[in-house]
Amino acid sequence: xxxxxxxxxxxxxxxxxxxxxxxxxxxxxxxxxxxxxxxxxxxxxxxxxxxxxxxxxxxxxxxxxxxxxxxxxxxxxxxxxxxxxxxxxxxxxxxxxxxxxxxxxxxxxxxxxxxxxxxxxxxxxxxxxxxxxxxxxxxxxxxxxxxxxxxxxxxxxxxxxxxxxxxxxxxxxxxxxxxxxxxxxxxxxxxxxxxxxxxxxxxxxxxxxxxxxxxxxxxxxxxxxxxxxxxxxxxxxxxxxxxxxxxxxxxxxxxxxxxxxxxxxxxxxxxxxxxxxxxxxxxxxxxxxx
Amino acid sequence: xxxxxxxxxxxxxxxxxxxxxxxxxxxxxxxxxxxxxxxxxxxxxxxxxxxxxxxxxxxxxxxxxxxxxxxxxxxxxxxxxxxxxxxxxxxxxxxxxxxxxxxxxxxxxxxxxxxxxxxxxxxxxxxxxxxxxxxxxxxxxxxxxxxxxxxxxxxxxxxxxxxxxxxxxxxxxxxxxxxxxxxxxxxxxxxxxxxxxxxxxxxxxxxxxxxxxxxxxxxxxxxxxxxxxxxxxxxxxxxxxxxxxxxxxxxxxxxxxxxxxxxxxxxxxxxxxxxxxxxxxxxxxxxxxx
Lengths: 290, 290
What we know:
Chains A, B: It comes from Ramlibacter cellulosilyticus. The structure is a homodimer of 290-residue chains. Chain A has 290 residues and is α/β, with parallel strands linked by helices.
């Protein structure tokens, strides 16, 4: 149980976290700050936060748990803004989709207090953003990846684990690099592919007519293409090395399949499809593949 | 109102059609045939069809409306099997995802009776197949594309339009080639991409661990990768020319985005994402894009 949550970034992810923490009885008071004062005000009016802080630093003041729910590109500047009030007893976490860059920024900026920081990536989200879409159930039943480093205080790591479990999440730990490679494959590349597919269609002469024909498969496949542009620009940039690696692997598979189609090699083509189809048919979110 | 539906292929698409036709009171009797006798039997036991036919030809005998709900690659052989009993008064339709090849097969095989054939593509489906998943609501509210040719009898075209509208579908007409190009973009290429993504992940050393981390975005993006391998082998082969064209367009967009990420060109990258995101945010299934 925490006394005070310092929330930096009162959007979808941060707002949902504050609501979930309160509902679970895990925190008494939420002090929130957003870059845009109107967002902070709206969060208070909605009851997502209790007190508006005029700066990130003041949101941290007096908190025993701090959540950075800002775009990954803003992580370093946020650390800089709060570093003077981060203490050894304070649990600091983020919710960023990339972890290598976040960990590097924490080392550089927090220095002696980097042990207070437990890098976290809750695998949850929506294709809409903003505090008005905040939802106390956003994290319920979802996975959270913690990527501690050698300097992470074990006590804080334990607190972080308990906290997310208290919100109904399943928690696992892995190294930041392992995390980034895996999420390039299951999240960042799929976003890039969905954006690229939409982009390619839009710019065709009869793009509007074509789009009008999309059915349920197209709907699901492209849902993530509606995601927030700035957020995804930052993620793709932050994880570009792993993204490019995963794109190469993907392209080999794609070119193979296209070649088989062109050559009329139905047997080989079916084999590749069958492999993908079988694995996807048995896949269940949050369960290790067999 | 029809007297007798001759259903060739009692799987998901055909079975759902028979159930919907009966529920809507559009047909009195359904005579069904499937390649696999156990499927035909199961369809009768489930009440999806009334009578089991021992051959495609006998399923057509006495029917005033015939639906071919077979894999696109089996269309030509099915036409050959039934040609002797196709009459000028009989409405014959298919449900294939590609239309150029189906129309060509109809011309070649049905010849003088090609006018009875109204090529149809209901934009509906599930990632599962088989009569046990047949659902009278599969077509409700969905779009159906009819791709008549010059020889298509206007009376049959009208009957086909009325029939699908009677099942709660929105019907539009277009040329077979226009259809195939559009569906390469919104359906066939997305399937290929989803298969290729899965394939690329599976073959990585820690593929199973990576797959275990997929969240809601991955779930939706890859749903279509669980689709039936034989059916999709046939579709990708049948529409390979348009598929390759659309893949080229997609690849240009993808390579552009990857290059911008690699170069750290956040401004341009955001611009491309924003364009895709804006269009997808306003997209609604079955509505022409603005």
